[in-house]
Amino acid sequence: MEFTEKMHAWIAASFYQEMRAVSFPQCDTVFLHCVYQYGNERGTRMALRALRDGKPLDYNTYAAYREWNPTNSSIEEGSLNQSECTETVPDYVVHYSRCPWAEKFREMNEIHAAQLYCSAIDRSIIHGFNPDLRFEVKGCLACDKECVQKWLNAHVDLPFKKPDPSNQEDFTFHCGHLFWTFAHTLKDVEPDIGKAIAQKVLDRFASENGPDAAETLQKYERNTFTRL
Question: Model-level pTM?
Answer without folding.
Answer: 0.97
